[in-house]
């Protein structure tokens, strides 16, 4: 009897070890997530992130150096062949999985970047984490080779980040793109109200000293999903921290989806020949 019990325990223990090839491994997006995501009409999200609902977004640039402030120091931060191995870490519900699948499919449809299930041999990979409430949304900038305590570089998608635009926004950070308003030439396009920028957030408004290579020769884009909204990091939420200098162009801070220029930037940075050939 005891023997049978211990045999059973061994069996249970073996069964519970996640196997990467298991057909219904929920650490990866499943075909069903992609298929069902096409049937759902997602609310594009607020076109402009509203005044009192801050998108708590951080780009974590660990080992930050001067060269990093100038943009991404080297092409080492670009994912080789545009392949980004990932795992889903945490209990995303069905709708949340569909939202992530929708964003991933959009990258796959319009760029040559591919989010692929992590294999054993992948040392650099993305761990898409479900953060708790108030933990915000964050990503590292580009591909990292650091040794993290928990292997994989985290992309944190808290409940308030699970909208089409913010998921695309965080994943663009992961590909190596910074906020649009930190471009070296931003002062020609936006006016920053430094007095209203929260003291702890001044760094976030620091602009690049040279044109970032991740801008890959595109014009300043007010409509980018990487542009923050007018009230981001404000001390006084009734007043903006930045305004457009030019009347033309869309409002800043849209989180509906990629702008055409976002797609072009990704395709240029990742050298996606078939997607850029006609541009
Ligand atoms: C990707 O392309 C397919 C085929 O054209 C389409 O059905 C699907 O809706 C697209 N997905 C997204 C997220 O746009």
How would you explain this protein's 3D organization?
With 279 residues, the chain is an alpha/beta fold. It has one domain: Collagenase (Catalytic Domain). Helices cover 25% and strands 12% of the residues. It contains seven helices and eight strands. The protein has helices at residues 2-16, 31-39, 66-69, 94-110, 164-175, 260-269, 273-276, and strands at 57-60, 83-89, 114-117, 126-129, 137-140, 153-157, 190-192, 242-244. The strands form two sheets. The protein has a six-stranded mixed β-sheet, covered by helices on one side. α4 links the parallel β2 (83-89) and β3. α4 packs across α5 (164-175). The longest helix has 17 residues, at 94-110. The chain is globular. The termini are far apart. Residues 7-23, 46-56 and 61-73 have low confidence and may be disordered. 2-acetamido-2-deoxy-beta-D-glucopyranose (NAG) is lined by residues 38, 102, 105-106, 109. 2-acetamido-2-deoxy-beta-D-glucopyranose (NAG) binds at residues 38, 102, 105-106, 109. The active site is at residue 170. This is Metalloendopeptidase. Zn(2+) binds at residues 169, 173, 179. It comes from Plectus sambesii. Residues 1-16 form the signal peptide.
């Amino acid at each position: 009897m005891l023997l049978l019990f211990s045999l059973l325990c061994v069996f249970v223990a073996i069964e519970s070890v996640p196997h990467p090839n298991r057909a219904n491994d929920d650490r990866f997006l499943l075909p069903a997530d992609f298929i069902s995501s096409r049937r759902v009409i997602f609310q594009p999200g607020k076109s402009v992130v509203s005044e009192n609902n801050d998108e708590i977004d951080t780009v974590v640039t660990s080992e930050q150096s001067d060269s990093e402030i100038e943009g991404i120091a080297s092409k080492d931060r670009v994912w080789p062949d545009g392949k980004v191995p990932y795992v889903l870490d945490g209990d995303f519900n069905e709708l949340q999985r569909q939202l992530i699948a929708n964003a991933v499919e959009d990258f796959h449809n319009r760029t040559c970047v591919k989010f692929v299930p992590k294999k054993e041999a992948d040392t650099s990979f993305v761990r898409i984490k479900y953060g708790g409430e108030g933990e915000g949304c964050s990503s590292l900038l580009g591909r990292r080779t650091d040794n993290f305590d928990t292997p994989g570089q985290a992309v944190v998608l808290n409940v308030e980040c699970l909208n089409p635009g913010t998921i695309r926004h965080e994943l663009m950070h992961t590909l190596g793109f910074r906020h649009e308003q930190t471009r070296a030439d931003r002062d020609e396009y936006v006016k920053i109200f430094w007095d209203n920028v929260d003291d702890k957030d001044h760094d976030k408004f620091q602009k690049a000293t040279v044109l970032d290579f991740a801008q890959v020769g595109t014009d300043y884009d007010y409509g980018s999903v990487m542009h923050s909204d007018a009230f981001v990091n404000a001390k006084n939420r009734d007043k903006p921290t930045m305004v457009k200098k030019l009347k033309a162009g869309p409002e800043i801070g849209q989180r509906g989806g990629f702008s055409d220029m976002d797609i072009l930037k990704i395709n240029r940075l990742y050298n996606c020949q078939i997607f850029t050939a006609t541009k």
